[in-house]
C-alpha cells in the first residue's frame, strides 16, 4: 500500500504534488517533492554559507518552512518559487549573524579564493585561432604540474573527474579543485597575453 | 509540468557532476544551462566554492535525513508510542468505571470528568502524553510557521482522521454507557479503550480550549485578541505554551499534565539528552587547525573549530562517534566513550605532498604541496627523509652553495621501479644526475603502471 502510494507520487509533476499536499497535508508527498531539488537547494546553501554543516542544516530548515508555506501559498511553478524561498532563507540566516568572528574571517578568505566560479570559463574550447592556440599552449605549460595534468586530461582527453581521479589516485575533490583552479589560472594567463576570445570568460 | 521536465533534464548532468562522472561535455552543458537557469547557476556556484568536498555523499546523507523525517511515523517508535497510549487509556477507562461506580452521576456529566482524569493519569506516561499532544496540535486549524514541533505535528493529521473514523459519534455514546454498567468485559476492554482514547482526546481538546478561553477572558482584552489571532492565523505554538503555563496557575489538574505533555513533545522533537563534547583539533606538530569540521557521525549536527582549534558540539541523540575533516589532512573518526573532551590530532594527507625540497646538508623543508599521480612506498614524508639522508650536493664545497632546481620526469614500471628519467631545468648535469640517482636508488613507487610524473629537487 505504502509502496504503491510512493510510486504513484514519484510519477506526478511538481505542481500535482503541490496540490496533493495542499489537500492532504501528507509530509511524504512534500518530502518526495523536495527531494527532487535537494541537489539544487544544497548548492544554493553552499553558495551562501560556504560551509557544509551550515548548508546542510539550512536544507533541512528550509524543508521545515515548506511544511507551512506550501500549504498556504499559491504556487504556480514550484521550481522558481523554491529557488526564491531557499535564497531568502539563507540571506535571513546570514543576517542573523550567527557566525562567530573567526568564521566570518574565514568566509571572506574563501570568497577571495573562489572568484573563478563567477563566470563560465572554458578557454580550452573557446579558442580556435592559431595564435590563440599558441598562447593557450604556453599558458597550459605554465600551470602548476597538478593543474596542468588535470586540465589536459579533462579538456584534451575527455576524461571525467572520476576517471582522472582513478588515473592519478587522488581524491575526487582534489581533481575538481585542480581543474577549477587551472581554468582560472588559464584565463588570467591568457588575459595577460592579450588573448580574449569571447566575453564568456 | 514544464518546470519538472526541465528539472529532470538538468539534474542528470548535475548529479553526474557531483558524483564525478561528468566530463567536459557534461560540464559545458551544465554551464550553458546555468546561463538561463539562476537556480542551477547558484547551486553550481555553491558547489564550486568548495571543490574538494564530497558533495555526492552530502547530498545522499541529506536525502536520507529527509526521508527519515517525512516517514518518521511509520517507524517502530511510533507504534510503540501508540501502544503505550493504548495502555494508559485502559487504565483511564478503569478509573472512569470506578468513578461511575462510586459517584453514580449521570453519564453525560461524567464525560466531562473523564478527560481530566485521563490527563492526570496519562501524564506520568511520557510516551502517552507525547502522543496525545502531537495529535492535539494537529487538530488546530493550521500550524505555526517555522516551528519545529508543529511541523512534525502535521504528520499526524492523516492518522487523526483515521482515528476519528474508528470512533464515530455512536461509538462515543457507547463508551460512557458501557462504563456506567461498571462491569468491564475482557473482550470489550480494548474497544472501550479505543473509544475512550478518541473521547479523551476530543474532550481534552475541548476542555483545554475552554480552559484557555476562560483564563483569557478573565485576563485583559489584549490577551483575548491574541488568542483569537492565534486560533485564526495559528501564529506560534509559543502562545499555546504560554497559555498552558497560565492555566497551570489556576491549579486545574489538567494544567500540570499539559505542561508535562508540552515538555514531552518538545523532547520528542529535539530527541533530547544533550551532551556537550568539547576538544581541540591539532596537526602533527601540535598547532591548532582552524576551521576543521567536526560532525557527529550519521547526523547533521556539526561545527567548525575556532581560531585556537577548539570546538564545542552538542551531541544529538543516537550519535556515537565524531568525524573530523580538514582539507589536506586525513579524515578521522573517533568513537565516543564516556569522556566529553575529545582532542584529536589530524595527520597530513600525504598524497597531496609531492614536492621534494632539499635544503643545505640533509635538511628538508616543506613547500607548497603539489599534486602528483604516484607516490613512493611509505609515503612522501619517508621519501623526503630518504632524500635528505642520501643527497650529495654536487658543489658542496662552494661558498655559498649554489641553488639549483631540477625537475625529473619519469615513468612507473610494473615492478614499482622508475624508468625513462628525463631531467628538466637549467641546472648543470651533475645536479640532474644526482636527482636521477636518488630516484633510481630510492624506494619503490606505487600507482598505475605506465603513469608519467615529475618531481622537483631543490639543491641549496
Structure notes:
The complex is a heterodimer of chains A (201) and B (460). With 201 residues, chain A is an all-alpha fold. Chain A is built from twelve helices and no strands. Chain A has helices spanning 2-11, 14-24, 27-35, 38-49, 52-72, 78-95, 101-113, 123-126, 130-142, 145-156, 161-168, 172-192. In chain A, helix 10 packs across helix 12 (172-192). Chain A is elongated, with a radius of gyration of 22 Å. By secondary structure, chain B is an alpha+beta fold. Chain B contains 16 helices and 14 strands. Chain B has a five-stranded mixed beta sheet with strand order 9-8-14-11-12, with helices on one face. Chain B has a four-stranded antiparallel beta sheet with strand order 3-2-5-6, with no helix packed on it. A three-stranded mixed beta sheet of chain B has the order 4-1-7, with no helix packed on it. In chain B, 36% of the residues are buried. Residues 73-77, 105-186, 233-241, 247-259, 262-272 and 351-372 of chain B have low confidence and may be disordered. Chains A and B meet through helix 2, helix 3, helix 4, helix 5 and helix 6 of A and helix 1, helix 2, helix 3, helix 4 and strand 3 of B.
Fill in the keyword field for this structure.
heterodimer, A: 201 residues, mainly alpha, B: 460 residues, alpha+beta, four-stranded antiparallel sheet, 14 strands, 15% strand
